Amino acid sequence: MINTVKSEWIKLRTVTMNWVLTIIAIVFPSAIALMTAFFKGDDAVPIDAHQLLQVILATSYIPVLLMMVVAAASITSEFGFGTIRPTFTATPHRARVVAAKACVVVLFSIAVLVVVMLITVLGGAAVATARGAHIDFGEVPTATSAIVGLVVLSGLMAMVGLGVGMLARSTPATIAILIIWPLMAEGLVGGLIGLVFSNFNVIAWMPFRVGFLLNALEVDGGPSRLTAGLYFGAVAVAICAVGTWFVQRRDA
Amino acid sequence: MIEVVDLTKRFGGKTAVDHLSFQVKPGVVTGFLGPNGSGKSTTMRCMLELDRPDTGTARFDGKRFRELDQPLHKVGALLDAGYVHPGRSGRNHLRWLAASNGIHRKRADEVLELVGLASEAGSRMRSYSLGMRQRLGLASVLLGDPQTIILDEPANGLDPEGIRWIRDMLSWLAGQGRTVLVSSHQLSEMALIASDLVVIGQGHLIEQSTVTDFVARYADVWVKVKSPAAGPLQQLVVAAGGTVVAPDPMSLEIRGLTTTQVGELAGTNQIVLHELSPQTGSLEDAYLKATAGSVVYHSGGSTTTGPEAHS
Protein backbone atom coordinates (compact mmCIF):
# COMPACT_ATOMS: atom_id res chain seq x y z
CA MET A 1 0.00 0.00 0.00
CA ILE A 2 2.85 2.39 0.86
CA ASN A 3 4.36 1.83 -2.59
CA THR A 4 1.04 2.60 -4.25
CA VAL A 5 0.65 5.80 -2.22
CA LYS A 6 4.19 6.82 -3.22
CA SER A 7 3.35 6.13 -6.84
CA GLU A 8 0.15 8.19 -6.67
CA TRP A 9 1.98 11.04 -4.99
CA ILE A 10 4.56 11.08 -7.81
CA LYS A 11 1.71 11.17 -10.33
CA LEU A 12 0.03 14.07 -8.55
CA ARG A 13 3.12 16.20 -8.18
CA THR A 14 4.49 15.63 -11.68
CA VAL A 15 1.58 17.22 -13.54
CA THR A 16 2.00 20.96 -13.99
CA MET A 17 -1.73 21.68 -14.01
CA ASN A 18 -2.04 20.41 -10.44
CA TRP A 19 0.53 22.95 -9.28
CA VAL A 20 -1.08 25.74 -11.29
CA LEU A 21 -4.40 25.01 -9.59
CA THR A 22 -2.68 24.73 -6.21
CA ILE A 23 -0.97 28.10 -6.62
CA ILE A 24 -4.30 29.69 -7.59
CA ALA A 25 -5.92 27.94 -4.64
CA ILE A 26 -3.41 29.50 -2.26
CA VAL A 27 -2.84 32.90 -3.85
CA PHE A 28 -6.45 33.85 -4.61
CA PRO A 29 -7.97 33.62 -1.10
CA SER A 30 -4.73 34.87 0.45
CA ALA A 31 -4.75 37.98 -1.73
CA ILE A 32 -8.43 38.63 -1.01
CA ALA A 33 -7.96 38.17 2.74
CA LEU A 34 -4.84 40.32 2.94
CA MET A 35 -6.35 43.06 0.78
CA THR A 36 -9.53 42.99 2.83
CA ALA A 37 -7.51 43.28 6.02
CA PHE A 38 -5.60 46.20 4.51
CA PHE A 39 -8.39 48.14 2.85
CA LYS A 40 -11.57 47.36 4.78
CA GLY A 41 -12.60 49.72 7.54
CA ASP A 42 -10.93 52.89 8.72
CA ASP A 43 -9.57 54.37 11.92
CA ALA A 44 -13.07 55.14 13.15
CA VAL A 45 -14.57 51.71 12.41
CA PRO A 46 -11.73 49.21 11.92
CA ILE A 47 -12.26 45.68 10.63
CA ASP A 48 -12.98 43.13 13.33
CA ALA A 49 -12.26 39.40 13.68
CA HIS A 50 -15.78 38.37 12.67
CA GLN A 51 -15.67 40.37 9.42
CA LEU A 52 -12.22 39.08 8.58
CA LEU A 53 -13.27 35.49 9.21
CA GLN A 54 -16.37 35.87 7.06
CA VAL A 55 -14.24 36.98 4.12
CA ILE A 56 -11.67 34.23 4.72
CA LEU A 57 -14.26 31.47 4.93
CA ALA A 58 -16.22 32.74 1.94
CA THR A 59 -13.20 33.01 -0.37
CA SER A 60 -11.87 29.67 0.81
CA TYR A 61 -14.55 27.90 -1.20
CA ILE A 62 -12.27 28.58 -4.17
CA PRO A 63 -9.37 26.40 -2.92
CA VAL A 64 -11.84 23.77 -1.73
CA LEU A 65 -13.40 23.56 -5.19
CA LEU A 66 -10.03 23.67 -6.96
CA MET A 67 -8.73 20.81 -4.83
CA MET A 68 -11.88 18.88 -5.68
CA VAL A 69 -11.01 19.38 -9.34
CA VAL A 70 -7.44 18.16 -8.71
CA ALA A 71 -8.87 15.09 -6.98
CA ALA A 72 -11.31 14.38 -9.80
CA ALA A 73 -8.60 14.84 -12.43
CA SER A 74 -6.35 12.40 -10.60
CA ILE A 75 -8.59 9.60 -11.87
CA THR A 76 -10.30 11.10 -14.94
CA SER A 77 -6.97 12.04 -16.55
CA GLU A 78 -5.88 8.43 -16.09
CA PHE A 79 -8.88 7.26 -18.09
CA GLY A 80 -8.48 10.11 -20.58
CA PHE A 81 -4.82 9.46 -21.36
CA GLY A 82 -5.03 5.70 -20.95
CA THR A 83 -2.51 5.62 -18.09
CA ILE A 84 -5.07 3.69 -16.06
CA ARG A 85 -3.91 0.59 -17.96
CA PRO A 86 -0.26 0.77 -16.93
CA THR A 87 -1.50 1.73 -13.48
CA PHE A 88 -3.60 -1.44 -13.17
CA THR A 89 -0.87 -3.49 -14.83
CA ALA A 90 1.54 -2.32 -12.15
CA THR A 91 -1.04 -2.69 -9.36
CA PRO A 92 -3.78 -5.18 -10.29
CA HIS A 93 -5.59 -4.63 -6.98
CA ARG A 94 -7.77 -1.79 -8.15
CA ALA A 95 -9.23 -1.02 -4.74
CA ARG A 96 -5.68 -0.47 -3.51
CA VAL A 97 -5.08 2.06 -6.28
CA VAL A 98 -8.29 3.91 -5.43
CA ALA A 99 -7.46 3.89 -1.71
CA ALA A 100 -3.99 5.26 -2.44
CA LYS A 101 -5.44 7.97 -4.66
CA ALA A 102 -7.95 8.88 -1.96
CA CYS A 103 -5.18 9.12 0.65
CA VAL A 104 -3.07 11.35 -1.57
CA VAL A 105 -5.79 13.73 -2.77
CA VAL A 106 -7.47 14.05 0.63
CA LEU A 107 -4.19 14.74 2.44
CA PHE A 108 -3.01 17.09 -0.32
CA SER A 109 -6.29 19.00 -0.22
CA ILE A 110 -6.17 19.26 3.56
CA ALA A 111 -2.54 20.42 3.44
CA VAL A 112 -3.36 23.14 0.92
CA LEU A 113 -6.28 24.37 3.00
CA VAL A 114 -4.11 24.41 6.13
CA VAL A 115 -1.62 26.59 4.26
CA VAL A 116 -4.44 28.84 3.04
CA MET A 117 -5.79 29.15 6.58
CA LEU A 118 -2.37 29.93 8.02
CA ILE A 119 -1.77 32.66 5.46
CA THR A 120 -5.23 34.17 5.56
CA VAL A 121 -5.91 33.97 9.29
CA LEU A 122 -2.47 34.82 10.59
CA GLY A 123 -1.52 37.11 7.70
CA GLY A 124 -4.90 38.84 7.67
CA ALA A 125 -4.77 39.39 11.41
CA ALA A 126 -1.22 40.74 11.20
CA VAL A 127 -2.08 43.18 8.41
CA ALA A 128 -5.26 44.37 10.11
CA THR A 129 -3.45 44.77 13.43
CA ALA A 130 -0.72 46.76 11.73
CA ARG A 131 -3.45 49.11 10.50
CA GLY A 132 -4.63 49.63 14.03
CA ALA A 133 -7.49 47.12 14.13
CA HIS A 134 -8.06 44.86 17.11
CA ILE A 135 -8.27 41.27 15.88
CA ASP A 136 -9.06 38.68 18.50
CA PHE A 137 -10.46 35.49 17.03
CA GLY A 138 -11.38 34.44 20.55
CA GLU A 139 -14.23 36.91 20.31
CA VAL A 140 -15.82 34.69 17.68
CA PRO A 141 -16.89 31.52 19.51
CA THR A 142 -17.25 29.45 16.33
CA ALA A 143 -13.98 30.58 14.73
CA THR A 144 -11.91 27.49 15.46
CA SER A 145 -14.66 25.02 14.65
CA ALA A 146 -15.44 26.81 11.37
CA ILE A 147 -11.77 26.83 10.34
CA VAL A 148 -11.34 23.16 11.26
CA GLY A 149 -14.64 22.44 9.51
CA LEU A 150 -13.35 24.09 6.33
CA VAL A 151 -10.24 21.93 6.36
CA VAL A 152 -12.35 18.82 6.93
CA LEU A 153 -14.73 19.94 4.17
CA SER A 154 -11.81 20.20 1.73
CA GLY A 155 -10.84 16.59 2.43
CA LEU A 156 -14.41 15.35 2.02
CA MET A 157 -14.90 17.37 -1.16
CA ALA A 158 -11.73 15.79 -2.55
CA MET A 159 -13.28 12.39 -1.86
CA VAL A 160 -16.48 13.42 -3.63
CA GLY A 161 -14.42 14.65 -6.60
CA LEU A 162 -12.54 11.37 -6.76
CA GLY A 163 -15.75 9.35 -6.46
CA VAL A 164 -17.62 11.26 -9.16
CA GLY A 165 -14.50 11.05 -11.34
CA MET A 166 -14.49 7.26 -11.02
CA LEU A 167 -18.12 7.14 -12.09
CA ALA A 168 -17.97 9.67 -14.94
CA ARG A 169 -14.41 8.83 -16.14
CA SER A 170 -14.28 12.13 -18.03
CA THR A 171 -12.81 15.37 -16.69
CA PRO A 172 -15.32 17.74 -18.37
CA ALA A 173 -18.27 15.56 -17.36
CA THR A 174 -17.02 15.29 -13.79
CA ILE A 175 -16.47 19.02 -13.43
CA ALA A 176 -19.90 19.71 -14.94
CA ILE A 177 -21.52 17.33 -12.44
CA LEU A 178 -19.61 18.86 -9.53
CA ILE A 179 -20.73 22.36 -10.53
CA ILE A 180 -24.33 21.54 -11.36
CA TRP A 181 -24.90 19.31 -8.36
CA PRO A 182 -24.48 21.91 -5.55
CA LEU A 183 -25.58 24.93 -7.57
CA MET A 184 -28.71 23.58 -9.28
CA ALA A 185 -29.43 19.91 -8.82
CA GLU A 186 -29.77 20.00 -5.05
CA GLY A 187 -32.26 22.85 -5.17
CA LEU A 188 -34.31 21.25 -7.92
CA VAL A 189 -34.28 17.75 -6.50
CA GLY A 190 -34.87 18.99 -2.97
CA GLY A 191 -37.73 21.17 -4.18
CA LEU A 192 -39.36 18.32 -6.05
CA ILE A 193 -39.09 15.93 -3.13
CA GLY A 194 -40.33 18.72 -0.88
CA LEU A 195 -43.55 18.82 -2.90
CA VAL A 196 -44.23 15.25 -1.78
CA PHE A 197 -43.01 15.61 1.81
CA SER A 198 -44.20 19.12 2.47
CA ASN A 199 -43.72 18.89 6.23
CA PHE A 200 -40.03 18.02 5.90
CA ASN A 201 -37.32 20.49 4.81
CA VAL A 202 -35.62 18.22 2.28
CA ILE A 203 -33.38 20.89 0.79
CA ALA A 204 -31.73 21.40 4.16
CA TRP A 205 -30.53 17.77 3.99
CA MET A 206 -29.12 17.85 0.48
CA PRO A 207 -25.49 16.66 0.73
CA PHE A 208 -23.59 19.77 -0.35
CA ARG A 209 -26.00 22.02 1.50
CA VAL A 210 -25.20 20.07 4.66
CA GLY A 211 -21.50 19.89 3.84
CA PHE A 212 -21.23 23.66 3.57
CA LEU A 213 -22.43 23.94 7.17
CA LEU A 214 -19.04 22.62 8.22
CA ASN A 215 -17.39 26.01 7.80
CA ALA A 216 -20.34 28.23 8.67
CA LEU A 217 -19.71 30.83 11.34
CA GLU A 218 -23.34 30.81 12.36
CA VAL A 219 -25.44 27.66 12.24
CA ASP A 220 -29.08 28.59 12.63
CA GLY A 221 -31.24 25.50 12.84
CA GLY A 222 -30.65 22.41 10.76
CA PRO A 223 -28.02 19.83 11.63
CA SER A 224 -25.15 20.65 13.93
CA ARG A 225 -21.60 20.97 12.61
CA LEU A 226 -20.73 17.49 13.87
CA THR A 227 -23.86 15.99 12.33
CA ALA A 228 -23.12 17.83 9.09
CA GLY A 229 -19.59 16.46 9.03
CA LEU A 230 -20.70 12.91 9.68
CA TYR A 231 -23.53 13.16 7.14
CA PHE A 232 -21.44 14.68 4.36
CA GLY A 233 -18.57 12.34 5.24
CA ALA A 234 -20.90 9.37 4.84
CA VAL A 235 -22.05 10.71 1.45
CA ALA A 236 -18.43 11.19 0.34
CA VAL A 237 -17.47 7.68 1.46
CA ALA A 238 -20.56 6.24 -0.24
CA ILE A 239 -19.78 7.97 -3.55
CA CYS A 240 -16.19 6.73 -3.38
CA ALA A 241 -17.38 3.21 -2.54
CA VAL A 242 -19.77 3.13 -5.51
CA GLY A 243 -17.04 4.57 -7.73
CA THR A 244 -14.60 1.92 -6.55
CA TRP A 245 -17.14 -0.81 -7.24
CA PHE A 246 -17.59 0.49 -10.78
CA VAL A 247 -13.84 0.75 -11.34
CA GLN A 248 -13.45 -2.86 -10.23
CA ARG A 249 -16.31 -4.12 -12.37
CA ARG A 250 -15.64 -2.24 -15.60
CA ASP A 251 -12.98 -2.95 -18.18
CA ALA A 252 -10.02 -0.59 -17.82
CA MET B 1 5.33 -19.96 -19.26
CA ILE B 2 2.02 -18.37 -20.15
CA GLU B 3 -1.07 -20.57 -20.24
CA VAL B 4 -4.26 -19.17 -21.70
CA VAL B 5 -7.23 -21.46 -21.22
CA ASP B 6 -10.70 -21.09 -22.73
CA LEU B 7 -10.57 -17.29 -22.86
CA THR B 8 -13.76 -15.63 -24.07
CA LYS B 9 -14.56 -11.94 -24.18
CA ARG B 10 -17.79 -10.46 -25.50
CA PHE B 11 -18.61 -6.81 -26.05
CA GLY B 12 -22.38 -6.67 -26.16
CA GLY B 13 -23.41 -9.09 -28.88
CA LYS B 14 -19.97 -9.26 -30.47
CA THR B 15 -17.57 -11.99 -29.45
CA ALA B 16 -14.04 -10.60 -29.66
CA VAL B 17 -12.26 -13.64 -28.22
CA ASP B 18 -13.92 -17.03 -28.46
CA HIS B 19 -12.77 -19.87 -26.18
CA LEU B 20 -9.14 -19.20 -26.99
CA SER B 21 -6.46 -21.46 -25.54
CA PHE B 22 -2.72 -21.44 -26.16
CA GLN B 23 0.61 -21.66 -24.39
CA VAL B 24 3.70 -19.54 -24.66
CA LYS B 25 6.97 -21.26 -23.86
CA PRO B 26 9.98 -19.64 -22.22
CA GLY B 27 13.25 -19.29 -24.05
CA VAL B 28 11.84 -18.30 -27.42
CA VAL B 29 10.06 -15.33 -28.95
CA THR B 30 6.46 -16.24 -29.72
CA GLY B 31 4.70 -14.19 -32.37
CA PHE B 32 1.02 -13.41 -31.84
CA LEU B 33 -0.53 -12.92 -35.26
CA GLY B 34 -3.97 -12.18 -36.59
CA PRO B 35 -5.76 -9.75 -38.88
CA ASN B 36 -7.07 -6.42 -37.61
CA GLY B 37 -10.02 -7.08 -35.32
CA SER B 38 -9.03 -10.68 -34.71
CA GLY B 39 -8.87 -10.13 -30.94
CA LYS B 40 -5.12 -9.95 -30.29
CA SER B 41 -5.20 -6.79 -28.20
CA THR B 42 -8.35 -7.88 -26.38
CA THR B 43 -6.68 -11.18 -25.56
CA MET B 44 -3.67 -9.35 -24.16
CA ARG B 45 -5.88 -7.07 -22.08
CA CYS B 46 -7.78 -10.08 -20.74
CA MET B 47 -4.50 -11.83 -19.94
CA LEU B 48 -3.49 -8.82 -17.84
CA GLU B 49 -7.02 -8.64 -16.36
CA LEU B 50 -7.53 -5.11 -17.63
CA ASP B 51 -10.63 -6.44 -19.35
CA ARG B 52 -12.78 -8.96 -17.54
CA PRO B 53 -13.07 -12.14 -19.60
CA ASP B 54 -16.47 -13.85 -19.76
CA THR B 55 -14.78 -17.22 -19.44
CA GLY B 56 -11.29 -18.58 -19.08
CA THR B 57 -8.07 -17.61 -17.41
CA ALA B 58 -4.50 -16.68 -18.19
CA ARG B 59 -1.74 -17.87 -15.90
CA PHE B 60 1.84 -16.71 -15.67
CA ASP B 61 4.03 -19.47 -14.29
CA GLY B 62 0.90 -20.91 -12.72
CA LYS B 63 -0.47 -17.68 -11.24
CA ARG B 64 -3.24 -15.42 -12.42
CA PHE B 65 -2.13 -11.83 -12.99
CA ARG B 66 -4.00 -10.47 -9.97
CA GLU B 67 -2.23 -13.02 -7.78
CA LEU B 68 1.18 -11.60 -8.65
CA ASP B 69 2.79 -9.55 -5.92
CA GLN B 70 4.60 -6.57 -7.47
CA PRO B 71 3.81 -7.76 -11.00
CA LEU B 72 6.35 -5.55 -12.77
CA HIS B 73 8.99 -7.96 -11.45
CA LYS B 74 7.16 -10.87 -13.08
CA VAL B 75 5.39 -9.54 -16.17
CA GLY B 76 6.41 -6.56 -18.28
CA ALA B 77 3.71 -5.46 -20.69
CA LEU B 78 3.46 -2.78 -23.34
CA LEU B 79 -0.01 -2.58 -24.84
CA ASP B 80 0.11 0.92 -26.28
CA ALA B 81 2.98 3.38 -26.18
CA GLY B 82 0.42 6.20 -26.14
CA TYR B 83 -0.70 5.43 -22.58
CA VAL B 84 1.25 8.32 -21.06
CA HIS B 85 0.38 11.71 -19.60
CA PRO B 86 1.73 14.20 -22.14
CA GLY B 87 2.58 16.76 -19.47
CA ARG B 88 4.80 14.39 -17.52
CA SER B 89 8.46 13.70 -18.30
CA GLY B 90 9.59 10.27 -19.41
CA ARG B 91 11.68 9.92 -16.26
CA ASN B 92 8.74 10.73 -14.00
CA HIS B 93 6.52 8.32 -15.92
CA LEU B 94 8.97 5.55 -15.13
CA ARG B 95 9.42 6.72 -11.55
CA TRP B 96 5.74 6.39 -10.65
CA LEU B 97 5.70 2.95 -12.24
CA ALA B 98 8.85 1.98 -10.36
CA ALA B 99 7.53 3.31 -7.05
CA SER B 100 4.35 1.26 -7.36
CA ASN B 101 6.40 -1.93 -7.29
CA GLY B 102 9.08 -0.88 -4.86
CA ILE B 103 11.70 -0.48 -7.57
CA HIS B 104 14.46 2.05 -6.81
CA ARG B 105 14.11 5.34 -8.69
CA LYS B 106 17.64 4.95 -10.12
CA ARG B 107 16.35 2.05 -12.19
CA ALA B 108 14.33 4.54 -14.25
CA ASP B 109 17.52 6.22 -15.44
CA GLU B 110 19.15 2.84 -16.09
CA VAL B 111 16.40 1.66 -18.42
CA LEU B 112 16.20 5.07 -20.10
CA GLU B 113 19.89 4.70 -20.86
CA LEU B 114 19.27 1.17 -22.10
CA VAL B 115 16.62 2.26 -24.61
CA GLY B 116 18.57 5.29 -25.76
CA LEU B 117 16.32 7.95 -24.23
CA ALA B 118 18.63 9.26 -21.51
CA SER B 119 19.07 12.61 -23.23
CA GLU B 120 15.28 13.13 -23.37
CA ALA B 121 14.51 11.80 -19.89
CA GLY B 122 13.49 15.19 -18.55
CA SER B 123 11.43 16.25 -21.57
CA ARG B 124 7.68 16.20 -21.40
CA MET B 125 6.19 13.34 -23.31
CA ARG B 126 4.05 15.58 -25.50
CA SER B 127 7.28 16.31 -27.37
CA TYR B 128 8.07 12.62 -27.88
CA SER B 129 7.69 11.06 -31.30
CA LEU B 130 5.87 7.74 -31.64
CA GLY B 131 9.23 6.00 -31.86
CA MET B 132 10.41 7.66 -28.66
CA ARG B 133 7.21 6.63 -26.92
CA GLN B 134 7.77 3.05 -28.06
CA ARG B 135 11.25 3.14 -26.57
CA LEU B 136 9.85 4.59 -23.35
CA GLY B 137 7.24 1.83 -23.31
CA LEU B 138 9.98 -0.74 -23.64
CA ALA B 139 11.86 0.96 -20.83
CA SER B 140 8.76 0.53 -18.64
CA VAL B 141 8.63 -3.15 -19.58
CA LEU B 142 12.24 -3.62 -18.52
CA LEU B 143 11.88 -1.69 -15.22
CA GLY B 144 11.28 -4.75 -13.07
CA ASP B 145 13.53 -7.11 -15.06
CA PRO B 146 10.52 -9.42 -15.59
CA GLN B 147 10.52 -13.09 -16.52
CA THR B 148 7.57 -12.64 -18.89
CA ILE B 149 7.29 -9.95 -21.55
CA ILE B 150 4.14 -9.08 -23.50
CA LEU B 151 4.34 -6.53 -26.29
CA ASP B 152 1.60 -5.32 -28.61
CA GLU B 153 3.04 -3.99 -31.86
CA PRO B 154 6.33 -2.83 -30.30
CA ALA B 155 7.95 -1.85 -33.60
CA ASN B 156 5.23 0.65 -34.54
CA GLY B 157 6.81 3.99 -35.33
CA LEU B 158 10.36 2.82 -34.89
CA ASP B 159 13.00 3.70 -37.46
CA PRO B 160 15.10 0.91 -39.07
CA GLU B 161 17.75 1.22 -36.37
CA GLY B 162 15.04 1.00 -33.72
CA ILE B 163 13.45 -2.04 -35.36
CA ARG B 164 16.79 -3.77 -35.46
CA TRP B 165 17.42 -2.80 -31.84
CA ILE B 166 14.12 -4.25 -30.67
CA ARG B 167 14.71 -7.41 -32.69
CA ASP B 168 18.08 -7.90 -31.02
CA MET B 169 16.64 -6.99 -27.62
CA LEU B 170 13.80 -9.50 -27.84
CA SER B 171 16.10 -12.25 -29.06
CA TRP B 172 18.49 -11.48 -26.22
CA LEU B 173 15.67 -11.52 -23.65
CA ALA B 174 14.31 -14.83 -24.97
CA GLY B 175 17.85 -16.21 -25.00
CA GLN B 176 17.99 -15.61 -21.26
CA GLY B 177 15.09 -18.02 -20.82
CA ARG B 178 12.33 -15.43 -20.56
CA THR B 179 8.86 -15.87 -21.98
CA VAL B 180 8.28 -13.35 -24.77
CA LEU B 181 4.94 -12.85 -26.53
CA VAL B 182 4.89 -10.25 -29.29
CA SER B 183 2.06 -9.22 -31.55
CA SER B 184 3.02 -7.54 -34.79
CA HIS B 185 1.81 -6.90 -38.30
CA GLN B 186 5.37 -6.68 -39.57
CA LEU B 187 5.62 -10.27 -40.72
CA SER B 188 9.08 -9.95 -42.18
CA GLU B 189 10.29 -8.86 -38.75
CA MET B 190 8.34 -11.64 -37.09
CA ALA B 191 9.96 -14.17 -39.42
CA LEU B 192 13.34 -12.96 -38.21
CA ILE B 193 12.71 -12.95 -34.45
CA ALA B 194 9.93 -15.43 -33.68
CA SER B 195 10.44 -19.15 -33.29
CA ASP B 196 6.87 -20.00 -32.30
CA LEU B 197 3.58 -18.57 -33.48
CA VAL B 198 0.07 -18.19 -32.16
CA VAL B 199 -2.23 -17.24 -35.03
CA ILE B 200 -5.81 -16.19 -34.36
CA GLY B 201 -8.70 -15.04 -36.51
CA GLN B 202 -12.08 -13.69 -35.38
CA GLY B 203 -11.19 -14.61 -31.83
CA HIS B 204 -10.46 -18.28 -32.63
CA LEU B 205 -7.13 -20.05 -32.55
CA ILE B 206 -6.11 -20.82 -36.12
CA GLU B 207 -2.72 -22.33 -35.45
CA GLN B 208 -0.13 -22.70 -32.76
CA SER B 209 3.15 -24.07 -33.98
CA THR B 210 6.73 -23.21 -34.81
CA VAL B 211 7.30 -20.72 -37.61
CA THR B 212 8.89 -23.48 -39.70
CA ASP B 213 5.90 -25.81 -39.35
CA PHE B 214 3.45 -22.98 -39.99
CA VAL B 215 5.16 -21.94 -43.20
CA ALA B 216 5.49 -25.53 -44.34
CA ARG B 217 1.80 -26.11 -43.70
CA TYR B 218 0.33 -22.99 -45.24
CA ALA B 219 2.88 -21.46 -47.62
CA ASP B 220 3.20 -22.33 -51.30
CA VAL B 221 5.99 -24.78 -52.21
CA TRP B 222 7.47 -25.05 -55.70
CA VAL B 223 10.62 -26.01 -57.60
CA LYS B 224 12.62 -23.36 -59.40
CA VAL B 225 14.45 -24.49 -62.51
CA LYS B 226 16.77 -22.69 -64.94
CA SER B 227 17.63 -24.53 -68.12
CA PRO B 228 18.55 -23.70 -71.72
CA ALA B 229 15.98 -26.38 -72.66
CA ALA B 230 13.13 -25.01 -70.60
CA GLY B 231 10.56 -25.63 -73.35
CA PRO B 232 11.09 -29.41 -73.65
CA LEU B 233 11.33 -29.75 -69.86
CA GLN B 234 8.03 -27.92 -69.45
CA GLN B 235 6.32 -30.50 -71.70
CA LEU B 236 7.82 -33.37 -69.71
CA VAL B 237 6.73 -31.83 -66.38
CA VAL B 238 3.16 -31.32 -67.56
CA ALA B 239 3.09 -34.90 -68.85
CA ALA B 240 4.27 -36.06 -65.41
CA GLY B 241 1.37 -34.25 -63.72
CA GLY B 242 3.05 -31.00 -62.67
CA THR B 243 1.94 -27.46 -63.30
CA VAL B 244 4.33 -24.89 -64.72
CA VAL B 245 4.69 -21.14 -64.78
CA ALA B 246 7.43 -19.76 -67.04
CA PRO B 247 8.47 -16.29 -65.90
CA ASP B 248 11.07 -16.10 -68.67
CA PRO B 249 12.25 -18.36 -71.54
CA MET B 250 14.95 -20.05 -69.44
CA SER B 251 13.11 -20.32 -66.13
CA LEU B 252 10.32 -22.53 -64.83
CA GLU B 253 8.38 -22.57 -61.58
CA ILE B 254 7.06 -26.09 -61.10
CA ARG B 255 4.34 -27.16 -58.68
CA GLY B 256 3.08 -30.66 -58.07
CA LEU B 257 6.49 -32.35 -58.36
CA THR B 258 9.34 -32.53 -55.89
CA THR B 259 12.87 -31.34 -56.56
CA THR B 260 13.98 -34.98 -56.82
CA GLN B 261 11.28 -35.81 -59.33
CA VAL B 262 12.15 -32.80 -61.51
CA GLY B 263 15.90 -33.64 -61.34
CA GLU B 264 15.32 -37.26 -62.29
CA LEU B 265 13.02 -36.19 -65.11
CA ALA B 266 15.69 -33.85 -66.50
CA GLY B 267 18.45 -36.44 -66.06
CA THR B 268 16.52 -39.21 -67.71
CA ASN B 269 15.90 -36.97 -70.72
CA GLN B 270 19.46 -35.56 -70.76
CA ILE B 271 18.31 -31.98 -70.20
CA VAL B 272 20.96 -29.63 -68.85
CA LEU B 273 19.93 -27.71 -65.71
CA HIS B 274 21.60 -24.50 -64.55
CA GLU B 275 19.53 -24.31 -61.35
CA LEU B 276 17.29 -26.70 -59.47
CA SER B 277 16.12 -25.46 -56.11
CA PRO B 278 13.15 -25.93 -53.77
CA GLN B 279 11.26 -22.73 -53.03
CA THR B 280 8.99 -21.98 -50.08
CA GLY B 281 6.66 -19.03 -49.66
CA SER B 282 7.29 -16.48 -46.95
CA LEU B 283 5.70 -16.25 -43.51
CA GLU B 284 3.58 -13.51 -45.02
CA ASP B 285 2.28 -15.88 -47.69
CA ALA B 286 1.51 -18.52 -45.09
CA TYR B 287 -0.16 -15.99 -42.81
CA LEU B 288 -2.36 -14.61 -45.57
CA LYS B 289 -3.43 -18.10 -46.56
CA ALA B 290 -4.08 -19.18 -42.98
CA THR B 291 -6.12 -16.11 -42.12
CA ALA B 292 -7.88 -15.65 -45.47
CA GLY B 293 -11.21 -16.68 -44.03
CA SER B 294 -10.83 -14.58 -40.89
CA VAL B 295 -10.18 -11.13 -42.27
CA VAL B 296 -12.72 -8.73 -40.76
CA TYR B 297 -11.72 -5.50 -42.46
CA HIS B 298 -11.10 -5.74 -46.20
CA SER B 299 -9.53 -2.94 -48.20
CA GLY B 300 -11.54 -1.52 -51.08
CA GLY B 301 -10.92 -2.64 -54.67
CA SER B 302 -9.21 -5.89 -55.49
CA THR B 303 -8.10 -7.85 -52.47
CA THR B 304 -5.12 -10.14 -52.79
CA THR B 305 -4.98 -12.90 -50.27
CA GLY B 306 -3.35 -16.27 -50.39
CA PRO B 307 -0.12 -17.37 -51.98
CA GLU B 308 -1.56 -17.60 -55.46
CA ALA B 309 -1.67 -13.87 -55.72
CA HIS B 310 2.02 -13.57 -54.97
CA SER B 311 3.63 -16.46 -56.83
Give short descriptive properties of this protein.
heterodimer, A: 252 residues, mainly alpha, 10 helices, 77% helix, globular, B: 311 residues, alpha/beta, Rossmann fold, Alpha-Beta Plaits, six-stranded mixed sheet, elongated, disordered C terminus
Describe this structure in words.
The complex is a heterodimer of chains A (252) and B (311). With 252 residues, chain A is mainly α. Chain A has one domain (2-249). Chain A has ten helices and no strands. Chain A has helices at residues 2-13, 16-39, 49-59, 61-81, 84-90, 94-130, 143-168, 171-196, 207-211, 225-249. In chain A, helix 3 (49-59) runs antiparallel to helix 6, helix 4 packs parallel to helix 7 and helix 6 runs antiparallel to helix 7 (143-168). The longest helix of chain A is centred in the middle third of the chain and has 37 residues, at 94-130. The two termini of chain A are 20 Å apart. In chain B, the strands form three sheets. A six-stranded mixed beta sheet of chain B has the order 6-7-8-3-9-10, with helices on both faces. A four-stranded antiparallel beta sheet of chain B has the order 2-1-4-5, with helices on one face. In chain B, helix 3 (106-114) crosses helix 4 (130-142). Classes of the chains: A mainly alpha (252), B alpha/beta (311). The interface between A and B is medium-sized, with 27 and 33 residues.
